[in-house]
Task: structure prediction
Amino acid sequence: MAEHKDVTVKAKVREGRGKNDARRARRAGLVPVTVYGGGGETVAAAAPLSELAAILRSEAGRNTIFTIDIEGLGASEVMFHDRQIDPVRSRLLHADFQRLVKGQKIEVTVPLHLVGEPIGVREQQGILEQIFREIEIRCEPREIPDAIDVDVSNLGVHDVLHVSDIQVGENIEILNEPDTVIATVGIVKEEPVAAPVVEAEGPAEPEVIGKGKKEEEGAGDEGEKGEKGEKGKKE
Result:
């Protein structure tokens, strides 16, 4: 279930909303955050990066329930609803927190764990492919599971696991479409190796014999005619 950490994160209201203000907050070791829901107003604040990073590294991760105390506005129980991570430095850049109200259900995303080795893999040389690794659910905060385990040991080759096949507690509602494919067992087809292509040799060009000789003789005749013409002019 979702872990309730006895942790209070101190935060301050963030006056500016632009990129420059966000950069200044990050340089000071703070993370721009937005707190909303639970019947309260939406508040832009800044909270210590180190404390939020520690919560995300905990076992429940983003589904951890904790308290945020915003200076001048009071404390609220919250959970991560969304977060932005720097893809290069893996650093938290921004976070959205949802206020929690007792008895009120919320929508969250939890991991899907496939359990067991499919018969199609074990006995039929198939390959298990997991299409979706998370699933969206609606429930009360304290009912949120750390993950949902799904037994795939009975899947044979070409069998498909759908969202409708997933069993959860009566207090949890799955929000994904029932016919969404979660996993399947397939077979890798070996592609036939193409035979090497041998290039056919083209017909050899016929050898021309004596062509040069005829040209030389023709050139000689031309020369002789030229000499005779010169002699006629002299006479």
